[in-house]
Amino acid sequence: MRRRCTHACLPLALGECQGGETRYNKEKILQGQGIDEPLSETGFQQARAAGVFLSNTKFTHVFSSDLLRAKQTAASILGKSQFCKETAVKYDPRLRERGYGVAEGRPLSDLRIMAKAAGEQCPSFTPPGGETLEEVKARGEDFFATLCRLIVKEACQEKQAPERTAGNDADKPSTLLTNHHGSREFHSNPIGATEELFASVLVVSHGAYMRSWLSYFVSDLGCILPASLTKTELSSVSPNTGVSQFIVKLESKDNIKPKIQCICLNKNDHLGDVAAEHIKL
């Protein structure tokens, strides 16, 4: 009988990045899932800036929405990486933006008008043919559960074959993030001096989806938030290529919720040079 693999604690870093700007973003037109618009030139600059900001982070896993704007953002980020240029991106439809049904391709103001006519308010209003917030949340829960199972499975496989990684510090993920001026933004070990990360995961998705995911982390999983975070910041949609970082502690035992700590939310300091056109092509 095969021995069950258990871990007292299995920590990983989870980085989230919102996709870069498209022409529709700039014109305040809803894209949802049905409008698969590429990044604008500003969007590519934003994605490259995010890549420079994350260039010192060694991602062990990269996931992206399968919509074009997220794919291009992920590729631009990896293109600036010092460690992960050849990392394979896994495209997952569960990371797509919220579907807005008949409102897709129409101005955001139309969605507000539709919501008001229905006696509701955005973002809780669901246009005909669109996804409810509960449906978006269910997609996020399902993806996160799959991610957690994957990390635990890989940890068990590594434990059963220690000779493959023993003494190989080069394979260990790093949580050190730097901005484009080279100054440190986070401690290299935000989870405690005695703990090492097993994995560092990058997820590239979309604004409404990521807000729903954060709500799930906070409301259902009890995510610990930075003390300085305001209610307005917590409820806001991430700016294009805004970066968030979480530390997730997993256990391989069944029915134990992950413990999550938010290190930063929707950080966009790296976009300062975009307006000044300092990001190299």
What does this structure look like?
The chain is α/β, with parallel strands linked by helices and 281 residues long. It has helices at residues 23-26, 41-53, 68-79, 108-117, 133-160, 207-219, 231-235, 272-275, and strands spanning 10-18, 61-64, 89-91, 199-205, 243-250, 259-267. Strands 3-2-4-1-5-6 form a six-stranded mixed beta sheet. Strand 2, helix 3 and strand 3 (89-91) form a beta-alpha-beta unit. Helix 2 crosses helix 3 and helix 5 (133-160) crosses helix 6. The longest helix has 28 residues, at 133-160. It is globular, with a radius of gyration of 19 Å. Residues 174-194 and 276-281 have low confidence and may be disordered.
Q: Which key terms come to mind for this protein?
A:
6-stranded mixed sheet, 281 residues
Main sheet: strands, sense, barrel = 6 strands, mixed
> What's the number of extended β-strand segments?
6
Our Rg estimate from Cα atoms comes to: 19 Å
Strand content: 5-15%
The helix-and-strand class reads alpha/beta
> What spatial form do the alpha-carbon principal axes imply?
globular
Q: Which range best describes the helical content: under 10%, 10-25%, 25-40%, 40-55%, 55-70% or over 70%?
A: 25-40%
What is the helix/strand order? Answer: EHHEHEHHEHHEEH
Question: How many DSSP H or I helices?
Answer: 8
Q: pLDDT below 50 for ≥5 consecutive residues: which ranges?
A: 174-194, 276-281
